[in-house]
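Weekly puzzle thread! Below is a chain. First person to post its structure in token form gets bragging rights.
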Amino acid sequence: MQTEPRLPVTDESEALEFLELLEGAPFSAPYTGQVIDWLIRDSTVHAPDTSPAARAVAALWRYAAGRDLGAGEIAERVRDVMHAMSLVADEHYAADPSPRRHRPVHGRSVRKLCVAAGRRRSLAGPGRTVVIAQGAHGHTVYRPETLAHHSVIA
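Winning reply:
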């Protein structure tokens, strides 16, 4: 079951991660990154009573809801980022199947993979797992782990 995305305006660290994930998202139009950068910089001028990151997130949502240059693609990536942030809730994951020896994967890294894959290919699995479909090449399942399960490598 997919979780409903929420706007991360109340938590500064979530708003900062939102911006980082959005800036690293894949875009088809070459100017989209520049539009996002402009929106983030321009938002710091307004509403001094809220955090700069929260203002930038709100400005991006407003722009994505409009019809200006790149708004449709920005709206898609904003939804991908919100989906990834809602889907990947744990600190560490184990990738299955993994061709390498077991190593924990940080939740932030799994979020980046979900944004790159998009909402249609990053899915919630049973028991808080995250499944990223790779088309005809299969899928990777990320299972949440606790640090207690990790062995210390010296």
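Puzzle host: Confirmed. Bonus trivia for everyone else. Confidence is low (pLDDT under 50) at residues 1-6, 147-154.
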